[in-house]
Specification:
By secondary structure, the chain is of the alpha+beta class. It has one domain. The protein is globular and about 40 Å long.
């Protein structure tokens, strides 16, 4: 029986690796990481870039339809948070932001082997259970 929860993995990269991945999301300069991503049909998206894209889209489409606009804008404008999110990358599998447990398990196992020597500092797992995740900030 499969779990009703879905999962998302993120990696925290060294600043050097993060800069390289942002410049070339195909990971051409990092064959071990590239091989794992290709095996699992995964791609990386820098958290900071995702936040910046969200803010840009909200400003174009009207911020009223984007409940996290204020929080996200404040986050990317905060130098400490910006530095943190520039090193954080979400893994998408087959274009999806969340995926089944077996997919997350296999991907996490491969990525965990790259910690330290390959510039990956940490692999983090998140699930879709609202009790385990921070809820959007209240609107003021």
């Amino acid at each position: 029986m499969s779990s009703p929860l879905q999962f998302q993995l993120r990696i925290t990269a060294s600043m050097e690796l993060a800069n390289s991945l942002r410049a070339d999301p195909s990971c051409a300069a990092h064959p071990a990481l590239r091989a794992i991503l290709q095996t699992h049909h995964a791609t990386l998206k820098c958290q900071f870039d995702a936040f910046a894209d969200y803010v840009s889209e909200a400003q174009k489409m009207g911020i009223g339809n984007y409940p996290l606009y204020q929080w996200t804008r404040q986050t990317i404008e905060n130098p400490e948070k910006k530095a943190k999110y520039l090193q954080s990358f979400t893994l998408h599998v087959n274009g999806d932001e969340v995926y089944d447990k077996d997919v997350a398990d296999a991907l996490e196992a491969g990525l965990s082997k790259l910690i330290e020597a390959n510039g990956i500092l940490r692999v983090s797992r998140y699930d879709t259970n609202p009790a385990n995740n921070p809820q959007p900030p209240a609107r003021v």
